[in-house]
Amino acid sequence: MVYVGIPKGQADQEEEVLKTIQDGDSDELTIKRFTESREKPGALWHIYAAKDTEKIREFLKKVAEEQGQENPVDHDPIHDQSWYLDRALRKRLHQEYGVQGWAIVQFLGDVVFIPAGAPHQVHNLYSCIKVAEDFVSPEHVKHCFWLTQEFRYLSHTHTNHEDKLQVKNVIYHAVKDAVGILRANESSLSRP
């Protein structure tokens, strides 16, 4: 978080932000950080475990059906980002599916890492600028490749339809570099 713009002369907005942080299931230390320091909170994140993705998807489809919304085959309630899980929906998700996420308030200067495939949502508390960088760690290549395959089933007009991470290229270049290093050191590796 590189910038948080707090409007001057709107004291009631600070109370509203505090209520949002509290309703967002933030822990007491985070609430204390906001109320007792001069730090600027920019965003409230809810991050869920990647293993819970299918349960969340099923839950969102169920809620959409209850509200009379369509669930087209080539759309995905998570990738479409058409839902924000407010306190009531988060509570229901936990009660019906046993899924609970983590609430993180991102203050000015904070970094938030989101594991590969972890469903998440963000609520901006003030005007803010966040710098995002996608990366593929060796531990998550398999999951990133799976996500790429999942994106292929979205509609052709969907913003996530293409492989933005270029996972196949990452794998190719990682293997190519590893083989190159092994070949360059082949003579030293064969000595007893």
Describe the structure.
- With 192 residues, this protein is of the alpha+beta class.
- The chain has helices at 11-23, 28-36, 53-66, 87-97, 141-151, 167-184, 186-190; strands spanning 3-5, 41-47, 102-107, 120-124, 127-129.
- The chain folds into two domains: 1-133, Jelly Rolls, CATH 2.60.120.650; 134-191, no CATH class.
- The protein has a three-stranded antiparallel sheet with strand order 3-2-4, with no helix packed on it.
Classify the helix fraction into a percent range: 40-55%
Number of E-state strands: 5
**What spatial order of strands do you see in the largest sheet?**
3-2-4
Estimate what percentage of residues fall within beta strands.
5-15%
CATH architecture level-2 label of the largest domain: Sandwich
Task: List its traits.
single chain; alpha+beta; 42% helix; 192 residues; globular; 3-stranded antiparallel beta sheet; two-stranded antiparallel ribbon; 2 domains; 7 helices
Write the SSE topology.
Elements: E1 3-5, H1 11-23, H2 28-36, E2 41-47, H3 53-66, H4 87-97, E3 102-107, E4 120-124, E5 127-129, H5 141-151, H6 167-184, H7 186-190
Antiparallel strand pairs: 1-5, 2-3, 2-4
Function: Histone demethylase that specifically demethylates 'Lys-9' of histone H3, thereby playing a central role in histone code.
Keywords: Cytoplasm, Iron, Metal-binding, Methyltransferase, Nucleus, Transferase
Domain JmjC: 1-152
Short description:
By secondary structure, the chain is of the alpha+beta class. The protein has 7 helices and 5 strands. The protein folds into 2 domains: 1-133, Cupin (Jelly Rolls, Sandwich), CATH 2.60.120; 134-191, no CATH class.
